[in-house]
Amino acid sequence: MSVIRTGIVETPISTDELAPEVVTAASGASVTFSGIIRDHDSGRGVERLVYESHPLADQQLAEAAAAVARAHPEVRISVVHRVGELRIGDVALAAVVASAHRREAFAACAELIDEVKDKVAIWKHQYFSDGDDEWVGALE
Fold first, then answer.
1. How many domains does the chain have?
2. Pfam families, alphabetically (predicted)?
3. Within 13 Å of residue 112, how many CA atoms lie on the same side as its CB?
4. In which domain, by residue range, is 121 found?
5. Averaged over 38-51, what is the pLDDT?
6. CATH number at residue 66
7. Mean pLDDT computed over 86-107
8. 41/49 Cα distance (integer angstroms)
9. Which residues fall within 8 angstroms of residue 57, CB to CB, at 6 or more apart?
């Protein structure tokens, strides 16, 4: 299993930062995922988000990545989630999965994102353009 990096950070993130440490000469495929802050949710305009994490979120993120790596031992993984105030267009979640073959890389990346959404205690506070706001839990 090869989990290269995981983390909960307060600074900007990108898959471009993660890829050089994940992709090797043995990699035939690299799949990236950028969870980008969009300007709408359920038909409502979104102005900004604030992400907060539980103190165990960093450990939970590492465990989620490790579970995917165990299920796909041929992949290399890095995944980072940003917390704090984010604006439209900012990246909240960045992941890179590399493998010798594309099918493994695609499958592992999809599973990784699902695991992060299902198992990591991160919540977002959405601020809407109509002045309303709401909390949304990653653990539903």
1. 1
2. MoaE
3. 34
4. 1-131
5. 96
6. 3.90.1170.40
7. 98
8. 11
9. 8, 81, 120, 121, 122
